[in-house]
Amino acid sequence: MTENLVRERFAPTGTVPQSERRRGRPILEVSGLTVDYLTERGPVRSCNNVDLTLHEGEIVGVAGESGSGKSTLITALTRLQRPPAVTVGGSITYHSPDSGTVELTTLSDAALRRLRWNEIAIVLQSAMDCLNPVMRLGDQFADALRQHNRGMGQQAVKARVAELLEMVGVPANRSRSYPHELSGGMRQRSLIALALACQPRIVVMDEPTTAVDVVMQRQILAQLLSLQEQLGFAVVFVTHDLSLLVQLADRIAIMYAGRIVEEASAQQIYNDPLHPYARGLRDAFPSLHAPLTELSGIGGNPPDLRHPPSGCPFNPRCSHRFDRCSSELPILSPIGDRQVACHLHDVSPAGVPAEPSGRSV
Ligand SMILES: Nc1ncnc2c1ncn2[C@@H]1O[C@H](COP(=O)(O)OP(=O)(O)OP(=O)(O)O)[C@@H](O)[C@H]1O
């Protein structure tokens, strides 16, 4: 297994390898974030007591199966969630260079609008849903730029639009095109450029390359890494594709049933995930470097979040479970420089399995 994985696959020559990247101060601190969908059949807790810290210039990935709560987490942390989703607990603290420390959960809509795009930008899955289909690309960029910098003259706007498009490899003359006249890759690149228009400090991305083929995905992610190195913004990147994240992220949070079950460096998740679910997710993707082996999936299905199992939510699917797993919820706790929520890795006296399985996880 390679010591330094990852960036080599996406990173263009000259970018800083993952292990040498500097981690700045905390810029976004999520603590105890809890989100319910209030449905007629009762609340569905899809984000449950989530803690997550993003540092300046860092890429944090969030991975998990479909339905694990990734989108719920990031829509809540950008305050983009819509009913029936309601944030019922926790805090999201943004450390702004201009406004000091800001609590996003209680911020007024007007203040939130000022923050979005200028400091926190969002790139969603489908560019077609995010771009206005009846407006030329350049006009959409100009609108965004003027909304956030009213004094900007026409020439300056034009030059900035050209600069932004070229930055992501879209020819500047495409600013006259409508979204449907662009390829899927160009649209997705344009969306990334639009997100970067006001030089945000944080870019939140929800599966931004799902709609394009793998070759285009690779190009877009290489470009994203290169821009991130140049401009220094921090990224929260959500995907179900763990193999992609280990190539991109500095740290990865693995979500299951609305909770973070392991949070560790990309290398640790790739080489030695501790939580059985994180390991199962890792083993479900082919390795880039190891010899070909048969892929193993994770048996069973994610729980119904209206009626989650007692104890560890993963216990019905876990081949390493022991008595405690079905009666007591494991808490996310530090193990060295990572965090894991699993009784197998509980080092307290109470954490010793009653019947050691003999298997190492
Ligand atoms: N509108 C809704 N009403 C009720 N429950 C919902 C709603 N949207 C999502 N959920 C619940 O929240 C859970 C988490 O959904 P979410 O979309 O956040 O997961 P995800 O990990 O982003 O999945 P995917 O990768 O498929 O987008 C789902 O399992 C579902 O039970």
UniProtKB/TrEMBL annotation:
Q: Which domain of life is it from?
A: Bacteria
Q: Where is this region: Disordered?
A: 1-22
Tell me the GO BP annotations in alphabetical order.
peptide transport
Q: Does the keyword Chloroplast apply?
A: no
Keywords (A to Z) from UniProt? ATP-binding, Nucleotide-binding, Transport
* SUPFAM superfamilies from the UniProt entry: P-loop containing nucleoside triphosphate hydrolases
InterPro entries, A to Z = AAA+_ATPase, ABC_transporter-like_ATP-bd, Oligopep_ABC_C, P-loop_NTPase
One Pfam family, short name please? oligo_HPY
Domain ABC transporter as annotated: residue spans: 28-282
Q: Which SMART domains match?
A: AAA
Residue intervals passing through the bilayer: none
Molecular function as annotated in GO: ATP binding; ATP hydrolysis activity
The keyword Cytoplasm belongs to this UniProt entry's keyword annotation: no
Compositional bias, Basic and acidic residues, is annotated for 1-10
Q: Which family does it belong to?
A: Belongs to the ABC transporter superfamily.
Q: What is this protein called?
A: ABC transporter ATP-binding protein
Q: Which organism is it from?
A: Microlunatus elymi
